[in-house]
Amino acid sequence: MNRNITKFYDLKNLEACMEDFRYVYSPFSKTHYKFRQDEGYVSNFRNDEMTKNSADGVEVPDYFYGVNPDEYAWIGLFSKEKYTAGTKVTLHSFYDHFGGPLVSFGDNYTTDENGHNIYGLYFEVVPWQDGCNYWQVEPSREKKEWSIDPVLLAEPKYHIEDGEMVETVVEFGVKEITTTINGHKYDLKIDRMPESFYVGFACCEAGIGHFIDFKIETK
User: Fold this and answer.
1) pLDDT tens sequence across 97-117
2) Which contacts qualify for 27-30: CB closer than 8 Å, 24 or more apart?
């Protein structure tokens, strides 16, 4: 018999949610910070301004590929439980100057010699100022600065303002997802999508993301 289960995580108190999540980092990360708890949400930050009260107003390059990936603290969370087709997640967030807060999912990670969890093959749904980017990302087989092999799966175009509330809904099927981002719906087939997967959220390497709440629904 199917059971409908909803798990809601209010990120104005991240500590209370962490029983169900673990920190996971990109293979390119040289820093392994935790989210900053702000009033009403959690955020990442500029590494060189991590002791300041707010990173608002920091400019982000118009063209960010090739920038130092640790200029902004790259921070992610994965669920401790795995999910399957029929799951839906909803993230409410907003961002400053370009960097998009994203939904992530994947079926594996490794743990390095210092105890940091590192993504294996995983996927990103990244709302940003010009629409949404859908990425497939995995550790690089060759030595290079970013240590990842990203593949852009799709990039539908629309506009999202800095500071605008972003509702990102991802519904998981078999080898496909349906996303609805502030009313913009998009279906995407994913050949390498696993049968079961962790779900979570992370910040973009090129800006500041603020995460308000996260919901997981299963049926």
Assistant:
1) 777 899 999 999 999 999 999
2) 27/118, 27/119, 27/139, 27/140, 27/147, 27/148, 28/69, 28/74, 28/145, 28/146, 28/147, 28/148, 28/205, 29/69, 29/70, 29/74, 29/118, 30/69, 30/70
